[in-house]
Every structure is written in C-alpha cells, then in structure tokens.
User: Fold this.
Amino acid sequence: MRDAAAIRRWFGGLALLEDLEDEDLDVLAEHASWVELAAGDRVHAAGDEGTAVWFLVDGDVVLGNVPPGSATDGEAIDGVVRRLVATPGYPVGWDGLMRPHHHRWDAVAATPMQMLRVARTVVDERSRADEGFAARFGRLVLWLAGEQVRRQHTRMITGRYDDEVGAVAGLIADRAGDLRVTSALHRIPAYLRSRPTVADAFRALEVVRDGDSAVEAEIAREALDMLAGVRRELQVYLGLQRVYEAVASAPDGSDPVHVRGLSCRALIDLFDQTDHRIVGVDRLPARPGSIVLCNHLRSHPDNRLPNGFSLILDTHFVSSMILYRSYGCAPVRVVRDSHWHEAAHDRYYARLGYVMVPSLEEAPPPPAVRLARRERFATEAAAVLKGGVDLVICPEGRTGPTAGSPRQLRIGAFMLAGALDPEPPIVPVAVANFDQRLSRAVLGAVVAEPFRMSEVVDDPSNRDQVTAFVNDDLTPRYRRWVEEAAALG
Assistant:
C-alpha cells in the first residue's frame, strides 16, 4: 500500500535533494510509485525514451553499457564507464530528462532493488508552472552531469599517468569545497602515501561510503573504484607480512622442515592473489633432489616491509608454486648471510634451515678461510641433495632487472653438481617480471629441460670446460627462456 507521508519523510532525509524546497518534495512524494526489481532487471536501456526518473531506495544499480544477462564491469559507452551506484536517493535515469530525452546508457539492477518512480511529465509540468523548481531541479541534474564528467576526468588521469593514488588525491582536492572540514576524506591522500597506512585509507573510505553524507559517500565510492589496483597491491603486501610472520614468529627450536612448509603454504596463498603463468612443470624430474637454478630479480620497492626487510619473490615463487606444489616437499635455498645490521633478515632466514653463504659484498677472505667456506658449502649442499630435497640456487648471486637476465652466472653450483655421486639433475627455471608492481605484472616462469653436467661437458671437474659451457652455451639459452617467461603475459 502506498504511504505518501512515509515517502515524503524519506525524500526529506536525502542529502542529494537538500537544495529542493519542501513544496518540491511534496510534489515528488505525491506522484511517486514503488517499483521493485530483481537482480538483472533493466530500469532502462540506452536509446530508450526517458519517461521517468527513479530514486534508488535500496539495492545496487549498474550504470553503463550492460549486455543482456550481465551486470559486471565492461566497456564505456558515450564516454560513460560502467559503475555501481548504491547511494539512497540517487536519481537513476536523469540522463533521459535532458534533450533529446533518450537515455545514453543502460541501468540494470545488480541486486534486488526498491525504487520510487516519478514520471517525467510530473517534472516537466512542475517546471513549466514554477520557474524556481525548474532552476532547482536543473541544478541537481547539472550536478549529476558534473559528477559524470569529474568521474571520467579522474579515470583519464589514472589511465594516462598510471597513478591511482595521485588521481584520488586530485579527486579529493577538487571536491574539498564540498566536504566537511572534519571529513575523513581529507586524510586519505596522506594514508595512501605510506605503505603501512594504506589499509587505514581503505577502512576510512568504507566508513565514509556507508555514512550519512551522500556527497562524501559518492566521492568515497569513486575513490574505492579508482583504487582497485591499490587494493590488490595491499592484499599482496598483507600476504608478504603473513609470510614473514609465519617464519619469524615460529617458536624457537621449531623443525626447519616444518617452518619451510609453513612458509610455502603462506606463499601459495600470497601468489594465488597475483596474475601468474607457469610452463614446463611437466619437465621436472619425477622425484625431488635436484639442483634448481633460478635467475635472480630485484624486488619492487613497494614490497619492503615496515621493518625494512624485502622478500625476494622470484625464489619464493619457484620454491612454493613450482616445487612445493609439485612434490609436497619444501626445498632448501642457498641464501647469503645476514649483515650485522639486518636483524629482520637474520630473524627470517635463521628459522628455515637454509644453506647460508657469505655475501658478495664482503671483502675477499684469506685463501684458507675461502677454502673452508667452500668445503662447508659443498658438505651442506650435498647433504640436502642426498636427503632427496631440492636445492634452489641463484648462480648470479646479485639481483637485477628482468631485461638482460641472467647476467654472469657463477660456476660454483655446476662444479658442485659435477662432483657429487650420484650426480643430481640440474633444473633451470627462468622467471620474469618479479621486479614490477605485482598489481600490474604477469609473473612468468619457464621450467627448462633438466640436464646433468656429465651430459654437457666431457670432464665435469674441469673448471675451464664448465666455464665455457656456462658462458657460451647455457647463459644465451637462459636469456631466451627469460624472454619466453616475460612474454607469457
């Protein structure tokens, strides 16, 4: 049953209509009728004659080019990008009130909706009878049109400059005059500029979106829409924190095998949130116990945790997404020792039972010390492989960009492989794009055909033969595999 008094009270509580006079709202309430739609129902279609304006009461409506049976994000039409509107009181169909009185985009219910419909004839007749109403209602339509223009402008900024944070800051700066001085929106740009407070920005935007100011809610909703890529990066960043804590917070005395498993499972959860491609997994040996090579890529600065530690993601990807998923056994990695000032690095790697080697940045040690270190490395690495566990090594030692990777490969891993009995397979894995922002990159990995050193050189103990194979044969092929991995996106 229609309750005109209740409808009038509802109209009176809408911030979007606050510029209309009481008598204007009386007319809208007197002629409004209830409309209920199921998810997927069309309010109107592009090209339809504009016969009414619908005020959104409850539910979500998608505006834009919406193919039949679809209410998801899509292409633009007449410069209008599809978007979701959930603001109570939003006048759906206002575009059909303007000449030539045809809708320029679709409006489709994304969820079950309730709306109040006011015929266009009511608005037209009231406008002819009252110039003041015509001016007031015209300002509302102009404001809605301006919102559309501002939305398109900020989207153009985002697309042109690849900077969602800058675009949101610009959006809020442009609308600062419409905001309360106490609005949380004023704090959003500062939150977004610091990685540890990005999560606070999203929480604040969601509170404003669900708040009592329709204008601020619409700005917050637009900002959240623009920050979709940043939200994805935030999820990855929070995943990095969970990986670190899973390892660094393991109880003292924990079995390294158990901690490595925790790490790999947390990493799988992390990488499942990224866009990635892997080819060649079928080339892996039937059982673990191989030397797995990985070219080494620098980590993007955005991955640095609040304690200053950066997880180098390429080897973590190979360990978790390729080896752990294939064998159910977490590999052991060869990792540089922590420097004296790297407490976070030490706290993380000390729990994993990895084979530690001196940093390349250290001054060259005396020959006796160098020999002792080499023997210790060979002993620890051999024990891992003979135990049927993969050993992941980055022969470059240092990280670098995807372009031109790998650089010079050191021969230690190859000499080790040739000296062991039984001789382990060597599995080259080429990775790409881990030096980019994870929300934009397609992470690529190519597992190449395994080989044994005795299959590629006559004498695996001959340093000259091994060096010639690594420099002249393997390195050029490895670079082509990296190019193949980079092209997977």
In short: The mean pLDDT is 85. The CA atoms of residues 50 and 96 lie 4 Å apart. The two ends are 57 Å apart (CA to CA). Residues 131-161 form the longest helix (31 residues).
